[in-house]
């Protein structure tokens, strides 16, 4: 035992180190152990004496328990997470492990350092598509039934929210994003702007703005966040090689009398 | 004219300068003119030669036009915004002004630097209440009819999303938050965890975690963000003077057969 341990779940943001907060950078500096999915651990500059525990993507709870054991033994641990750790990332897994695990873990010094989550980074790149009411849904049916995903998506589409879709597609879930676009097309016009933002702020960044009616054929993968516009989402054409601006109006008109 | 102007809408985060990103800090340093709501401008350290244009809260579009005029005249302008500029803040106002304004403004070099928005900062402080699907709604009926606010809130409550409420209350809108809690109580159990997070990370920070049935009597103001838990939102008691953890489980069980 080397004093009281500490576990901080640190948001690395979308990728560009310039989008890290000062507090997150400090938590990474102070950590004796880094725990996380391998590509996220690899983003953190190596530091002499700091131990690195990189793991596969499919073992969030094992990773959380390992980090808690290290902290309980007195180590200062940073669990690294892409984006914001509280948005479809590691923070909830850590708290699930605390709730189900060794009662002593409840007394640990645990903190979360927020980060720029993918939808905020993507939105900033294209304008302000989240400028009105919006929601963030995970399209993955690994942890919830597809019927729940579909019911939630339909509800927020009908309520005219802008929708950010996380985890839109993977090799094991190849058809869900297409099904989501099909559902959206039954509720929103085919010219509704859709943003497909891949690897935002990273060297392989690729951002596409397409009408909903054409979105089904655009490439997407697990590094993509998809933003479906609402009725107030607008495109501003700019001409001369400048990308169009996508933003959502802040105001919503009163419904017309029937 | 002193070369090509530039307008950057900069997210200051929730208040603590340690939650600023490096990119946002750099945009503030490089700006010749700072434009924004007075308390946000006041957060930025003064810099010799940098002009400060602070204004009242109720003039977003005027402020946006002023910033665009400055940029069009060749100045490097930072429009400062609390939290993330794309979430109920200045970015959409700037793009509305561009769409409706001088066509030359479409050719300006305009960028958005994202920031930690209030719900992410509040969530990190208490655990991970946004750990499942969630939405962000503005409770203000200045820019949309109350009937739309209510219909959206009801839709996301029924869809079992965690709900972050921005702009929950003000002197001119004293009853809307209470009405929102009443609506939530018709749909969610009275013991659902609610987080009222005021001035997160600032010296006057005040965070309360209450059951929904008691939330109506808690103090709240325009600096508060309210997070309504969903069915998967849990409280972990910790004892011995430690605040409870609030988090939302990542998984959603399959609905029981009727």
UniProtKB/TrEMBL annotation, chains A, B:
Pfam families: TP_methylase. It comes from the Bacteria. Keywords: Cobalamin biosynthesis, Methyltransferase, S-adenosyl-L-methionine, Transferase. The keyword Transmembrane helix does not apply. Pathway: Cofactor biosynthesis; adenosylcobalamin biosynthesis. Residues 6-215 form the Tetrapyrrole methylase domain. PANTHER family: COBALT-FACTOR III C(17)-METHYLTRANSFERASE-RELATED. This is Precorrin-3B C(17)-methyltransferase.
């Amino acid at each position: 035992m080397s004093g009281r341990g500490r576990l901080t779940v640190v948001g690395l943001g979308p990728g560009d180190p310039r989008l890290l907060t000062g507090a997150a950078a400090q938590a990474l500096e102070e950590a004796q152990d880094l725990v996380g999915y391998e590509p996220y651990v690899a983003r953190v500059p190596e530091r002499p004496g700091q131990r690195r525990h990189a793991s596969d993507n499919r073992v969030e709870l094992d990773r959380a328990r390992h980090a808690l054991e290290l902290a309980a033994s007195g180590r200062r641990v940073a669990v690294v997470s892409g984006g914001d750790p509280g948005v479809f990332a590691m923070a909830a897994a850590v708290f699930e492990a605390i709730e189900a695990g060794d009662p002593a873990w409840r007394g640990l010094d645990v903190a979360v350092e927020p980060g720029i989550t993918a939808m905020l980074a993507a939105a900033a790149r294209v304008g302000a598509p989240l400028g009105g009411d919006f929601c963030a849904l995970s399209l993955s049916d690994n942890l919830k039934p597809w019927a729940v995903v579909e019911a939630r998506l339909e509800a927020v589409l009908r309520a005219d929210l802008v929708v950010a879709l996380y985890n839109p597609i993977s090799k094991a879930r190849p058809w869900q994003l297409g099904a989501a676009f099909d559902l959206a097309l039954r509720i929103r016009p085919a010219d509704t702007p859709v943003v497909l933002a891949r690897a935002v702020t990273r060297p392989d960044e690729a951002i596409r703005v397409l009408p909903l009616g054409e979105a089904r054929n655009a490439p997407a993968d697990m590094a993509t966040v998809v933003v479906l516009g609402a009725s107030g989402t607008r495109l501003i054409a700019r001409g001369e090689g400048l990308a169009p601006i996508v933003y959502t109006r802040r105001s919503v008109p009163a419904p017309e009398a029937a």
